[in-house]
Amino acid sequence: MSSNPLPPAPSHFQCGRFRFDLARRPLVMGILNVTPDSFSDGGQHAGLDAARRHAERMIAEGVDIIDIGGESSRPGSAALPLEQELERVLPVVEALRDCGVPLSIDTYKPEVMRAAQDAGADLINDIWGFRMPGAVEAVAGGQTGLCVMHMQRDPQTMQEDPVYTDVVAEVRDFLAGRVAVLRAAGVETSRISLDPGYGFGKTPDHNLRLLAQQPRLAADGLPLLVGLSRKSTLGAILGGRPPQQRVAASIAAAVCAAERGAFIVRVHDVEQTVDALKVWWAVRHETVAGANG
Questions:
Q1: Does pTM top 0.90 for this prediction?
Q2: Into which family does the record put it (predicted)?
Q3: Residue 113 maps to a domain
Q4: Quick check: is 202 catalytic?
């Protein structure tokens, strides 16, 4: 018998100032990119006033978490200087910290993590899985929720012929390894969520295999955060349609992800996804009661 047994599966997800029961309806995370070059909505919400208006719209549509991103991670994107990322995201966090829903920061830079937490962020969403020097130390204390994502290589090279022997096993093992590092640093299990990293160093077939076998990815019952909204895999399925014409496919993908255990779905189209998940949840439980939370 192991002398260091694993902790029991969490019953809730601690997301900064907010606590979510893992038995509830899946959460919808709305994307708020304050970037000029994101693949689907670059430039649409850059600037504090535009970002605030979009956040208010998503809240009215029923969003559960708002994910603020200051640096594009689309394939081939260049790294953004630290000061420029801070200038983009911190005013938005400060303006929205009392909006009534958790604020997530999409960043891999430890300096941004620290500053965002100080400004009121509730979740750190890291495409690098807290592998950057100083990242684990930046988030180890406190109650901020963490999202550990898998990515092969980096945004500049990740889509250059990604190769796996067993994509599901490799992603699962990577996530489990990063969870072990965070736990060793003193991070409570209830603060950790996992993201398979759909589209980050994967072909469309890799992504579909991961989605089909998604229940294998949840280490020790930790919640899964899934982002498939408008991504190129959906475009490939639809014969090459551009991102703005992938809304219905994105909603279908969100429901597929929820059916396979996702607790958080990260989306561009909040209202439509909230509605779809309410219907799915009601059918699953054979009752209208509980569809809203």
A1: yes
A2: Belongs to the DHPS family.
A3: yes
A4: no
